Every structure is written in C-alpha cells, then in structure tokens.
Amino acid sequence: MKILLLGAGGFIGANLTERLVRDGRHEITALDIDREKLDDTVKSGELNYIEFDIRKGDEKLEELTKEHDLIVDLVARANPSLYVSNPVDVFRLNFIENLKIADFCVKHKKRLLQFSTCEVYGITAAKANGLSSAEHPQPFIEDETPLIMGPVKNHRWIYACAKQLLERVLHAYGIEYGLNYSIIRPFNFIGPRIDYLPSEQTGNPRVFSHFMNALLYGTPIKLVDGGVNFRAYTYIDDAVDCIVRIIDNPNGCCDRQIFNIGTPENEVTIKQLAHKMIEIFDKHFRKPGDPTPEIINVSSEEFYGKGYEDCDRRIPNVDKARTLLGWKSEHDLDSVLFHTMKYFVDKHRAKQKEAVAV
Ligand code: NAD
Ligand code: UGA
Questions:
Q1: Is the model's pLDDT at 356 over the cut of 90?
Q2: Contact 285/352 with Cβ under 8 angstroms?
C-alpha cells in the first residue's frame, strides 16, 4: 500500500514513520515543514521525504493524495499554550487546512486516517454537574460519551472544538459521500522525541517537557492550579502498535470507526506525575552536581494567560481497540516515564560531554 503521512516530522509522526519504514511492508511518503525528528530515517535513504507546508499549494497536496492509497493526517498545533495565545491559527490549521485533506480524499476516493484528540471529550459530566471527578470516575467511550466543552470565553476549547467539528464533518462525509475514514483519539502519548526542552528552544511545550527540563536544568516544577487534574499516559511504542493495526484495517474493521488509544491504568494527577518523575530521576539518573528543582504552584492565568480552562480527568475506555484489533498497551507508568526520561537524559549528557570536549 502507498501511504502518505502528513505531519510526519512531529512526535507521533516521526515514531510512526520510523516503525513503518522498519516494517518495510508499505511504500511511505513523509511530509512536514520540519524534518529534525526524522533526520536519521531521511538520511538512511529509505524514506521518501517531502518538505512542504500544507497551507501553501493545494495542487501539490491534491496530486499527492491522488498518488497514495491511504492518507494519514497528523498535522496540527497540539500544545495547549498555543490554544490560548494563538486561537485563530489553531482553528485555521486544525480545521480549515485539515478539511482540505478530507475533501481531496472524497474527490479521489482515498481512505483517510485522521488524528483527533481525547480533548474532544472536554470536561467530565461530573465536573459539569458540580461533582468531583476524583470521586466519580467516568471512562470516555467513543460512540457514547457526550462531548462537553467550557464557555466560549475560555478559548482553550478552540482546539477541541476544531477537532470535534472535523470529526463530525468526516462522519457526515461518510454518510453523504461515502468517505472511508478512521479517527484516532490519542490520550496523552509520551516517549522519545516528544516536544522539546524549554531551556533549549523557546516556547511552552506539554507538561512532560517542562518537568524534564526542571530535572536537567534546575528550573522550578510548576504545578498549574495545584496539579490536581488527572492524565493517563501511554508509551509511544504501544500507541504506534495500535496505529499500525488501524492502518492494516483487518477485514475493514476500522472503516468509519473512532478509536480511543490510551492506558487507563496509567492515570495520575499532575502533582503525582511531578513526584514520580523526581523519584525515577533520583533512582536511575541523578549524578553529583545535578540540580534539585523546587516545586511551586502557579495559577493557570499566570502560566498560560487568560482563556485557559483545564480538562479535569480523561480516562480512556479502550474496549474497541481491544475487541476489534486485539490491542492493549504493555508499558506501565514507571516504564513509560523511565524510557522517555532516559531518552532526554542521554541526549543531555551527550551534549554536556560535547561541550566539555570543545
Ligand atoms: P507535533 O506537534 O509533534 O506534530 C505535528 C506536526 O505537524 C509537526 O511536525 C509540524 O511541523 C507539522 N506541521 C504543522 N504545520 C504544518 C504545515 N502547515 N504543513 C506541514 N506540516 C505541518 O504533535 P504530535 O504530538 O505528534 O501530534 C500529532 C497529531 O496527534 C496532532 O493532530 C495532534 O493534535 C494529535 N494528538 C496528539 C496527542 C499526543 O499525545 N501527542 C494527543 C492528542 C492528539
Ligand atoms: C494535550 C494537548 O492538548 C494535545 O496534545 C492532546 O490533545 C492531549 O494533551 C494529549 O496529549 O492527549 P494536556 O494534557 O492538557 O493536553 O497538555 P499538557 O500541557 O501536557 O498539560 C497536562 C496538565 O499539566 C494540565 O493540567 C496542565 O495545566 C498541567 N501543567 C502543564 C502543569 O501543571 N505544569 C506545566 O509545567 C505544564
């Protein structure tokens, strides 16, 4: 099968592309505006890589769609700080530009694998009803759970709304135009190559990178609004294993289906995540002279600016992936964190060594 991966240079894209190239079962074309995370695979000569901005040049995008059997769309702004600082850009890229891809898939009768998000579930029903979601756990089920967003003034939800609307349009395209699609809702994947460390690159990445940065550079660990909200983390290799099964689509079982990919057992509050990362760092990686970060509380307005509202709890129900695809993630939370941290620690130590050698 000929597969076109859009946004292949990102965290999920680079890990997925590498796995598909290694498997060698398909012909892969990878497209992105940034190839840094894919550099080794590009240099190996085993990958057809195209540097291209999907906002510039519909003709080329349509031509590429026509030439492939399956289009995997990973392109998005995917960091919450951007939903607050650049909401219009988030909407334009995550909805308008992504919709073009769906339109080309309809026109040329191609299967589309669309990356959505667990954020489409929004807040829990417990929170919406004034109850504590810590006391009322409610797993999110793909085709059952209502999607509940906060008020418009909290523009953080523009990301979730753009992704949700795209899902609804794909569903409608399926009904009216016969589009064959599968939708993936990732629940907090982490692993090697996620985002970047804020001491090495400007920006405001996702939480793992902030906490890792604190451990390596001694910046404070900031708990936004006390770090009381929950997330359930999935190791990227487990996630990629599930994505590959969805690509393979045995007996068409993924046609017009939405899949949660997540690990409900790996749930923690953000405060617990901070303490766990410190514990793992101290046990496996700490060297004399390494900084010890302090833990401080910051308000969400201070950290993100006005317009932020958090998702209180996201427990994935993964029965569909298990029953249709026989998938279950293998890595528990300690292992997810250990492997991800190791990648960043090794990279950091290699850089330190290089600096000493110069
Ligand atoms: P990422 O930011 O690492 O990857 C996105 C990629 O899209 C980047 O490499 C970026 O350069 C590329 N891109 C952006 N604009 C582009 C353009 N105009 N033309 C071409 N390429 C462009 O994010 P990720 O974590 O790999 O997420 C991939 C997808 O999965 C996104 O759609 C995201 O919303 C979704 N998702 C990810 C997670 C997660 O756990 N990582 C969770 C929920 C949803
Ligand atoms: C992210 C993004 O929206 C998407 O990439 C994706 O849809 C989803 O996760 C996912 O990965 O499944 P979120 O989990 O809110 O959303 O992103 P993080 O920045 O990792 O924040 C997690 C939690 O940590 C939030 O409660 C946030 O307020 C908190 N946080 C973040 C801190 O307490 N300290 C920090 O330094 C950073």
A1: no
A2: no
Encode 82-97: b = buried (16+ Cβ within 10 Å), e = exposed.
bbbebbeebbebbbeb
For residue 272, count CB atoms less than 10 angstroms from its CB and return exposed for 0-12, middle for 13-18, buried for 19 or more: middle
Residue 130's alpha-carbon distances to 126, 127, 133, in angstroms, are 6, 5, 9
Which residues form ligand 1's pocket by a CB distance below 6 Å?
Answer: 7, 9-13, 32-34, 53-55, 74-76, 78, 93, 115, 117-118, 186, 188-189
Ligand 2 midpoint to CA 349 (Å): 26
Q: 52, 25 in Cβ contact below 8 A? A: no
User: Which single residue is written with the structure tokens 């900031």?
Assistant: 222
pTM over 0.85, yes/no: yes
Domain 76-348 in this protein, CATH class: alpha beta
CB of 223 closer than 8 Å to CB of 214: no
pLDDT of 263 above 90: yes
Specify the 3-state DSSP secondary structure of 12.
helix
Output the CA angle 242-247-250, nearest 5 degrees: 90
* pLDDT digits 0-9 by tens, 148-201: 999 999 999 999 999 999 999 999 999 999 999 999 999 999 999 999 999 999
Residue nearest to atom 8 of ligand 2 (CA): 188
- The pLDDT of residue 358 is 79
Ligand 1 pocket test: pick from 4, 15, 32, 258 the residue with the most ligand atoms within 8 Å of its Cβ.
32
